[in-house]
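Lecture 7 notes: from sequence to structure.
We start with the chain below.
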Amino acid sequence: MGMDLQPSPSLMLPADVADAPVAVLLSGGLDSSILVAALLERGCAVVPLYVRSGLFWELAEQQMVARLLVALAAPRLQPLVTLEQPVDDVVREHWSMTGRGVPAAEADDTEMRLPLRNGLLMLKAGLWCHLNRVPQMALGPLKGNPFTDASAEFFQRMEQMFRLSGVADLRILTPFAALEKQQVMQLGAHLPLHLTFSCVAPQAGRHCGECNKCAERQAAFQVAGRSDLTVYHAVPC
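Predicted structure tokens for the same chain:
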């Protein structure tokens, strides 16, 4: 209840953000899902982009993304665009491909690193944006993200790279970059967050309840003071 008394978090968004469509890199997780809703609420036309790389959890993730977008349906929400960016030919034995040796709940967050993840996603998404005249692309990294490809410098360099490649009109937005997890959860307090997906080792299409991402998800609901309606394969302790 106390969370309702806090001031509304401020997003890092340009004043003219609603003047043009925004493509959101949507994974179906808490942060990117809340980002879609937050941009819609600010009057933006939002194009959700899902980039499929062949990762172990993607089938379950895509099923939840479809359900989530039905729940978020709004006049300014465009149909989901799914892009293919396979990486199995170069990382075929990685845990993200095999589902074996997935970082457990107690693992350090740095063990979740997927090499060049944001760069690969943004290259494909940026090309799509350029060809489809969508001049803004948004991602949902939070304050304190430990990975260098989620830093302000990285995103600035990506914009520079696009300009050098002839994509001068693409603007990269990271509206949550100054926010903590609790603040982002506050933004999504009215949303059906049980329809989001945050697991890297799903079992029968459900959150496993034991991996690093499931632990992070459980902690997010706890810090926000919200009931976690997620169905876990293994009941959290």
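Points to note: The chain has a mean pLDDT of 93. The two ends are 24 Å apart (CA to CA).
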